[in-house]
Amino acid sequence: MSTLEVRNPANGELVIALPADDAGSVALKAGAARAAQPAWAAWPLSERLACLKAFRDAVVAQRDALATTLTRETGKPIRMARNELDGLLPRIDFFLAECAQAIAPETVYEEGGLREQIEHMPLGVVANISAWNYPWFVGCNVILPALATGNAVLYKPSEYATLTGLEIARLLHEAGVPRQVMACLVGAGEVGSALLAQEVDGVFFTGSHATGKRIAEAVGGRFVKLQLELGGKDPTYVCEDADVAAAAASLADGAMYNSGQSCCSVERIYVHEAIHDAFVEAFVQTVGGFRMGDPMNEDTYIGPLTRMPQLDVLSAQVADARERGARVLTGGQVGGGSGNWFEPTVLVDVDHTMEVMREESFGPVIGIQKVRDDAEAVRLMNDTRYGLTAGVYTPDEARARRILAQVHAGSVYWNCCDRVSPRLPWSGVRDSGLGLTLSKYGIQAFTRTKAWHLRTAG
Ligand code: NAD
């Protein structure tokens, strides 16, 4: 049997070698899920939701140990690991509160002995292939509503967050979800591929654009539901009437939180020329206060990158920007010692000839570009193949709305950033993805509609 090595990104040390799945074990788990799903769908909704509630209670009770596991395998600073677990609770609460209403049968017509109804049926067996950067969030955004609506789930966590994936499955089993209904698959891309070769009724993917494209090609022609939550190059525009200090503090956090490894991290900043220099000074000062170090320390803000190959991506982006005339105001280097360290980095005098303003960085690197007016800001914000989030900082709501209405993005922010709400749909446009999670639509996403035409006899 092959193994999957889990390494600590802070020092490269082996945490554990886990037995990995292979094509045979994936097929067995898929067959068991297929056989078990109808009985699970027949459970009353209240009993399926009771499992989610028990899962929530277990997350609360075991939060500190779960956070430590997350930090050891991803390098996420421990305070942020706890924040992720705390942030999961309102999402669970949302699903618990909204599920019944979101999938309630609807009578849409009733007259002369004829009744027409819409019913929301589970898809069946769904595959969830997931990312490592917020494994509790992105995993549970799919797993929980999928289970609540009566599906069986074959969950392939990222190979960089496998221990967390196994914990999610363990807690759900302990909460009462049958083992066959919720299976965790251990391994990297080849196990994901083996999963896609199974007969599944839906594929829900969170990860990079490159892998998303491969998955769309693998699933193409099979007529199964496909959702892709992919990367972004999320822009923000700071207008000349913005509160410079507040915007700089908010955006430095939005760019560097989780060491910049959020799908909705601020990746590009455009600043009106009238306040550009003051903004940059405040931004660099805020970044200077971010402590980089052992992710287990309470006061660490910047931890190691989870994936070592990203160090080369960031180094290449910084080198390319420098060659084309950018200035590095702070950072710019791979950190010393073992582990995947990259200094928080701020670049100015950047433009769209540079990779750092076009390709996802997914690390603590940000480019700040000067703009003349709103029209130039809108043009540059839209000059991307991605479209996950975008934001504007100004006290003027009408101006913010005018600008954001023209920007191609699934989510838009006024005076805030790097934020996800369980009540709102989470989606990307263009190369940022297909479909959505969260909100009532992200519950219905795990169902298909069945149309009932009912005529009383006679
Ligand atoms: P990735 O694409 O490298 O891996 C994602 C998953 O796909 C992993 O589980 C991996 O094992 C699996 N995989 C790889 N090759 C496969 C194949 N050929 N067939 C099937 N499965 C395969 O992405 P990552 O590094 O885990 O995540 C980072 C990316 O995810 C970033 O681009 C980030 O923006 C994006 N992301 C997006 C969102 C969102 O909501 N839009 C949320 C989190 C992360």
Summarize the structure.
The protein has helices at 23-42, 45-61, 63-74, 78-102, 135-148, 162-174, 189-196, 209-219, 244-256, 276-288, 309-323, 374-381, 397-405, 441-444, and strands at 3-7, 14-19, 106-111, 114-122, 125-129, 152-156, 182-184, 202-206, 225-229, 235-238, 268-272, 327-330, 345-348, 365-371, 389-393, 411-414, 426-427, 433-434, 436-437, 447-455. It has 458 residues and is α/β, with parallel strands linked by helices. The strands form five sheets. The protein has a seven-stranded mixed sheet with strand order 12-13-14-11-10-15-16, sandwiched between helices. A six-stranded mixed sheet has the order 7-6-5-8-9-18, with helices on both faces.
Description:
The protein is α/β, with parallel strands linked by helices and 458 residues long. The protein is built from 14 helices and 20 strands. The strands form five sheets. The protein has a seven-stranded mixed beta sheet, sandwiched between helices. The chain has a six-stranded mixed beta sheet with strand order 7-6-5-8-9-18, sandwiched between helices. Helix 2 runs antiparallel to helix 4 (78-102). The longest helix is centred in the first third of the chain and has 25 residues, at 78-102. The protein is globular, with a radius of gyration of 23 Å. Bound molecules: nicotinamide-adenine-dinucleotide.
Average residue pLDDT: 98
Helix and strand content put the structural class at: alpha/beta
Strand content: 15-25%
Strand order of the largest sheet: 12-13-14-11-10-15-16
Radius of gyration, Cα only, in angstroms?
23 Å
Ligands: nicotinamide-adenine-dinucleotide
Name the helicity range: 25-40%
Low-confidence stretches: none
Q: What is the tally of helical segments?
A: 14
Apparent shape = globular
